[in-house]
């Protein structure tokens, strides 16, 4: 029996909208359906070939309840025979969707699958799924001395442990905006974005969170968000956003049968976890784990996408791994572009796939911190 693999034949994303911005009026099911239709239009595939839609959604309540994946299939006008499943690994939900889709392809559970995700944080506020409840339970709280994990406090603990100054965090944030602005101005995002027509007749086709002309002095005037004497502010943390991404995945053999051209292969994947109180450090062991699994060295990787949940997360990762700073988030990251929780993994993967194709790079490594002290890591190989 021939060895099966998992390849990406197309990757698209919405522009990332600011909170209460251009995408806020579009239901997350309809945003998801828009991405599914974009995949079909760009590849020419008959949607009936798709055997499952694996979809990351962070807050599965309100407008994002009742399985967005299945609702999106139906809203897209795709055949009723196509199922869908929504998954939650917090910030890494749609990166995990790619992992699950790839595993199913390699195992022979399906031959054509869509992986992706969405989050409309304007419509479903962060933390909405915990409203009126106690998500951690007495057992977990007792284990950690009654301390309820908080990502902002975790980001402060990282800055403290790695000796990162407020100025360093702010400088990193500025570089994110500068790189994202340069990517927009250079047309680097154009091919990966599926512009979204809105009910008001406006077409949203550009990421809305990028701020130009900032300075370290202007960022220094922002108040710390989590500690009175802290270093983490709204300026050096990711933005609350709306948006998502989607990838059409299959095997090399099936792609050839359907006349599709793979653009990348899922080379290796890993997931790791650490202390849930500091919460955001697991990208470091996840990176080491996926490199070992891949049989690759840090120097083999042409581009690193470490989700910029907070500047301290990316800078601690950089300090521990010793990676080349120029290869990290070359087109900016969540500090500038935004972080629609369930959709970020697919947004980042889409940006990474297109970056490798545009620059001739071979390997890309993506990792992101996740609630509960977890992290996914993926190495993709451009084809």
Please write out the topology.
Blueprint: E1 7-13, E2 17-18, H1 28-43, E3 52-57, H2 68-75, E4 84-87, H3 93-107, E5 112-120, H4 137-143, H5 151-161, H6 166-185, E6 196-197, E7 203-204, H7 216-220, E8 241-250, H8 252-258, E9 264-273, H9 283-294, E10 303-306, H10 311-321, H11 334-337, H12 341-359, E11 363-370, E12 374-382
Parallel strand pairs: 3-4, 3-5, 10-11
Antiparallel strand pairs: 1-8, 1-9, 2-8, 5-8, 6-7, 9-12, 11-12
Helix pairs in contact: 1-2, 3-12, 5-10, 9-10
Shape type: globular
Q: Roughly what percent helix?
A: 25-40%
Low-confidence parts, pLDDT < 50 over ≥5 residues? none
N-to-C SSE series? EEHEHEHEHHHEEHEHEHEHHHEE
Query: How would you characterize the largest beta sheet?
Result: 10 strands, mixed
The number of helical elements comes to 12
Indicate the proportion of strand residues: 15-25%
Termini Cα gap: 23 Å
Indicate the radius of gyration in whole angstroms: 20 Å
Structural class: alpha+beta
């Amino acid at each position: 029996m021939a060895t099966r693999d998992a390849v990406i034949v197309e990757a698209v994303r919405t522009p990332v909208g600011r909170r209460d911005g251009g995408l806020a009026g579009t239901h997350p099911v309809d945003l998801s359906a828009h991405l599914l239709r974009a995949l079909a239009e760009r590849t020419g595939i008959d949607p009936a070939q798709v055997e499952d839609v694996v979809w990351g959604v962070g807050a599965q309540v309100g407008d994002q309840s009742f399985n967005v994946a299945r609702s999106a299939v139906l809203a897209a006008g795709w055949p009723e025979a196509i199922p869908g499943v929504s998954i939650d690994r917090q910030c890494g939900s749609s990166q995990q969707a790619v992992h699950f889709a790839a595993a199913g392809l390699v195992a022979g559970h399906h031959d054509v699958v869509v992986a992706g995700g969405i989050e409309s944080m304007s419509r479903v506020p962060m933390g909405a799924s915990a409203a009126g409840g106690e998500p951690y339970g007495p057992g977990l709280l007792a284990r950690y001395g009654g301390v309820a994990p908080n990502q902002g406090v975790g980001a402060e603990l990282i800055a403290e442990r790695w000796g990162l100054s407020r100025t360093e965090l702010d400088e990193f944030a500025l570089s994110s905006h500068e790189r994202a602005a340069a990517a927009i101005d250079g047309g680097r995002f154009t091919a990966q974005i599926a512009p979204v027509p809105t009910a008001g007749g406006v077409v949203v086709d550009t990421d809305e969170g990028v701020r130009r002309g900032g300075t370290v002095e202007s960022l220094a005037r922002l108040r710390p968000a989590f500690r009175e004497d802290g270093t983490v502010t709204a300026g050096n943390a990711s933005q609350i956003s709306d948006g998502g991404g989607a990838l059409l995945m299959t095997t090399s053999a099936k792609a050839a049968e359907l006349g599709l051209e793979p653009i990348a292969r899922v080379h290796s994947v890993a997931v790791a976890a650490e202390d849930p109180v500091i919460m955001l450090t697991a990208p470091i062991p996840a990176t080491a784990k996926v490199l070992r699994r891949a049989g690759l060295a840090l120097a083999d990787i042409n581009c690193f996408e470490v989700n910029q949940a907070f500047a301290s997360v990316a800078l601690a990762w950089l300090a521990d791994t010793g990676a080349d700073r120029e290869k990290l988030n070359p087109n900016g990251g969540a500090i500038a572009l935004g972080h629609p929780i369930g959709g970020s993994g697919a947004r980042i993967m889409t940006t990474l796939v297109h970056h490798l194709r545009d620059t001739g790079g071979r390997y890309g490594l993506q990792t992101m911190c996740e609630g509960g002290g977890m992290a996914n890591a993926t190495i993709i190989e451009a084809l």
